[in-house]
Amino acid sequence: MNQQAFAGTAILISCFAPLACAEDWPEFRGPTGQGIVTKGELPTTWGKDKNIAWKQAIPGKGWSSPIVVGGRVYLTTAVPVKGNNDLSLQALCLDAGNGAILWEKEIIRQDGKRSPPIHAKNSHASPTPLIRGKRLFVHFGHQGTACLNLKGEVIWKNTSLRYAPVHGNGGSPILVEDLLVFSCDGGDRRFIAALDVADGKVRWKSDRTAETDRGFSFSTPLLIEVHGQKQIISPGSGGVTAYDPNNGHEIWWVRYKGYSVIPRPVYGRGLVFICTGYDRPSLLAIRAGGKGDVTDTHVVWKTNKAVPHAPSPLLLGEELYTVSDNGLASCRDARTGEVHWQERLGGTYSASPLLAGGKLYFQSEQGNTAVVRADKQFRLEVKNSLGESSLASPAAANGALFIRTDKHLYRISVR
């Protein structure tokens, strides 16, 4: 390799090097992708006059979750354009210390005359952004995807992956080595795609093969490793599939009845846990691995009681925690599905739960957060309220909790 080529390779590696700080929250559901704060604790009580370090008004509307990296907060939003029905789909950066908006960048101008309608609980900026090294990746579903540097300058943009959305966008992208991977499950076409992180070009695209009458779904994939083989787990309508990151080929799959799948999978103890979507969701524990159709051989247990449509599960050790959309929280034995407890929290839920310091944070659509001990015995510690509605999942970094409501972003930390 000549010196110039070596230098170019070194620059690329440095740009996409893994993050070094374990306390950052670089993607949907954090550094593990499964909602777990890996270091430290978070505040357990807050209110209008307690432990609110700052709140910042956010322009437009968006239900993407915040991410926090290197003392900065990043999120996306859809801002109405004056004089017409267009929307400015934007990325924002805030100072995590004081909440000041440092920059705003329009990524895509959405044509209001051609944009299809969305669900009343959705937004035009629902997928959560992510960061690796010095690159920020933002995704707006069928509208397109972009890579920015941390100053807000666009490096590349891809708007070529078109499909007919139903209810709008939702699923967030993930990074798999030098690939940006996300699902594209519309009413007309269903596939999972991988873009090259360097230039945004499509590296591979794999059509969904599960049979279903309603193809639209919104789940975020999860990268796992099984016997040394990396696999992308991606639930969709009619089934969940494990894909080979190298080429997008199907490794194994499990069939089920369900559509409009939203929750992100979790993985541990050799089991993948997924929810199957509407109309009546089931929770499946699937032994990872195998080849081809493993529906009849690898489903270890399943249940359709108190299963969420929208919030993702959370796995800690031998216990699996969920909250249904109507507020019924559950703790199950991850190996058997046996219920340790089920309790009504009150309210309705879309946000995925978060765990820190042995405590679970369940955030309702009404802006209330129930803090519950992660234990086989149900112990509610406290309920907190912000008085504003919220559908976005919370983020955590450096001992602070970041909650997005319909109008503001809050930093909650002990002062």
Q: Which structural traits does this protein have?
A:
disordered N terminus, Methylamine Dehydrogenase, Chain H, 4-stranded antiparallel β-sheet, single chain, 4% helix, mainly beta, globular, 5-stranded mixed β-sheet, 2 helices, 415 residues
The amount of beta strand, in percent, is 35-45%
Write the CATH homologous superfamily.
Answer: YVTN repeat-like/Quinoprotein amine dehydrogenase
Largest sheet features: 5 strands, mixed
CATH class: Mainly Beta
C-alpha termini separation: 54 Å
The unreliable regions are 1-20
**Roughly what is the average pLDDT, rounded to an integer?**
94
Please tell me the total number of domains: 1
Summarize the structure.
It contains two helices and 33 strands. The chain has helices spanning about 5-15, 295-300, and strands at about 50-55, 65-70, 70-80, 85-95, 100-110, 130, 135-140, 145-150, 155-160, 175, 180-185, 190-195, 200-205, 220-225, 230-235, 240-245, 250-255, 265-270, 270-275, 285, 290-295, 300-305, 315, 320-325, 330-335, 340-345, 355, 360-365, 370-375, 380-385, 395, 400-405, 410.
